Amino acid sequence: MKIIAVNGSPRGAKGNTDVILQAFCEGLREAGEDPEIIYLKDKTIKHCIGCFSCWSKTPGICVHKDDMAGILDKLKDANLIIGAMPLYIYSVPGLFKDFMDRMIPLIQPQIEKRGDHFIHPPRYGKPMRFVLISNAGFPEGHHFDALKQTFRLLTDGPDSELLGTICCAGGPILTIPAMKDKVQWYLDAAKKAGSEIVSEGRISQETQAALARPLPPDPGAYADMVNLYWESLGVERIAFDEPIAETKAVTEGVALPPPASTETIRDLIAGMPLAFNAKAAGDLEAVAQFDITDEEPGDYYITVADGVCHAFEGKHADPTVTIRTPADVWLKISRGEMNGAAAFMKGKYKVSGKLDLLMKMAKLFSGPPKG
Fold it and tell me: Are residues 261 and 182 in the same domain?
C-alpha cells in the first residue's frame, strides 16, 4: 500500500499535530506499511489562480512550476492520503488550503451524478481514501465540526472515502513534558488507529470514540492554564464593561516560626525559606500567596527579594501569584506524590497572577546550592 501523509502545520515536525501523526504512522509501520510524510512548510506551493488550464489547455498539469507537481505525482498513485493539520479558524491553515486547491488537476471538469450527488469525477480512475488528523487549542471537540464536514464533502462520492478522523481538543497538552504520562492513552489510541487502517481498512468505532475524547479533563482549568500562560508573557486581556473588582481583604503578615515537622501545610510553607535557592532566584522579587482550603484552612505567603526568602501568615496586598489549594493537594505535590501540572489540569487547585513564578518554584526551592 502506498501511503502519503501531508502535514500542513506551519510548525512542521515541531507542532502538536506531528505528535499525533507520528503515533498514527507508528501504528502503520507496525502493521507493515511505510508511510511517506510531506511537510508543506518545506515546500513551495503557489496559490491556485483559477485559470483552469489544468482542465483545458494542459489536462492534469498546472501552469505553476513548483513543488506541487511532484506531490501530485505521489498522490495519484497513493492508496491512502493522510491530511494532518492544526485547526485554524475552524478550518485548515493557509498552507493546507493551497495544497487542497492545487489538487484539482487530479479531477476532471465535468459534473456527473455519482450515487446521490453531483461531483467532479477523478482523472486517474483510482479511488482516493483519506484520514483526517487535526488538533486545536480549544478544549472542546465541537470546534472541529466545520473541518470534519469539509473532509466529508471532499470524500462524498463512490470514488473516495473518509476512513476516520482524529481531532484532538486541547492539543497543546501533547507537548508539555510534565503531561507526557497523562496523554499517553491518546497517543496509544492514535497508534492503534494506524494499525486498524491496515488490518481493517478503517478506524474502528471503539478507537474512534477514544480519539473523540478531549485531552483536558477539566476544560475550565485548561482555559485557566492557557490564560495564565499568555499573562506570563505580558499579554493583557482587553476587557469591555468589566465590573469593578471587589477589594481584597488584607491582613497584616506575621512571620512564621521555623517548622516543627513536614506534616502540615503551615509547617511546609514555614520551611520554604530553608529550601530556598538564592542562586536560582537571582534578582527576582516576588510574592506567592497561598489560600489553603479544606482540612487545614489558612492564608500564608512567601516573599522573595534581595536573594532572601521569608514566610508569613496572612494575606498580602499585592501578590505576584496566588495559589488556592486544598492542603492535602499541595502537600502531595511538594512530596512528589502528585504531578503538579496534571493536578492543575484536573482543577485540583487554582492559580491567578503570574504563571511563570509558579513554574519556577521547583528550582527556587530546590535547596541551597551546594559547595
Answer: no
**Nearest by Cα to 101 from 35, 52, 163:** 52
Distance CA 93, CA 165 (A): 17
What is the pTM for the complete model shown?
A: 0.78
- Give yes or no: residues 24 and 164 share one domain: yes
Q: Under a CB-based contact definition with an 8 Å cutoff, are residues 231 and 355 in contact?
A: yes
- Domain carrying residue 166: 3-216
- Span between the terminal Cα atoms of the chain, in Å: 61
CB atoms within 10 A of CB 261: 9
Mutual orientation of helices 16-30 and 180-199 as an angle, nearest 10°? 50
Give the C-alpha distances (Å, rounded to integers) separating 300 from 266, 294, 305: 8, 15, 17
In a domain, 370, yes or no: no
Residue 249 lies inside a defined structural domain of this protein: yes
One domain, residues 196 and 258: no
Structure confidence at residue 252 as a pLDDT band (50, 70, 90) = low
Q: What is the CATH number of the domain that holds 310?
A: 3.30.1050.10
166: helix, strand or coil:
strand
* Dist. CA 170–CA 139, nearest whole Å: 5
Pairing of strands 80-86, 112-114: unpaired
Q: What is the pLDDT of residues 285-316, one digit of tens each?
A: 999 999 998 877 899 999 999 999 999 999 99
Residue 71, pLDDT > 80, answer yes
Considering the domain architecture, whether residues 212 and 229 belong to the same structural domain is answered as: no
Task: Count structural domains, the chain.
Answer: 2
Which residue type is seen at 51?
C
